[in-house]
Amino acid sequence: MLAQVRTAAQALGAFSLMGSVMEPLVRAEDTAQAYELVRTTVGPQGRSPLHSMSRDKVFVVVAGELVITLGEEDHAAPAGTVVHVPSGTAHRYRNPTADPAQVLVVTTGAGHVDFLAGMSALTVDGPPAPEALAEHTAAHGVRMFPPRD
């Protein structure tokens, strides 16, 4: 494993997903499978669906403001907020503002970047087929929950 420095222009293949731009900065192969890091720019009113994962996740809000749902509770997350999401915890983020927000997302283990990239491909033309979504989420240890609002 080699030490690395990456500038914003050297992100590892940015892609769009549900109103956000995902920029992988560190992949699992860079960390002996220990963690992955993605810079996410969440567009105005952008959101992720309510879901849980088989790995821990940490959000570090670096610009703007998000609301992060953990279980049944919403938490305001302005710039500077750090949120730890333990494995198996239902969670989502949303940007309630008219301005973009930026968050660094660290996940333990490997596979989160591949999951996100696969979701991007599945949703590029609109909502994915339910069977394809179920297969993709199960393969990556992700469980989706019905929307609450």
UniProtKB/TrEMBL annotation:
It holds the Pfam family Cupin_2. Residues 40-106 form the Cupin type-2 domain. SUPFAM superfamilies: RmlC-like cupins. Signal peptide: none annotated. It comes from the Bacteria. This is Cupin domain-containing protein.
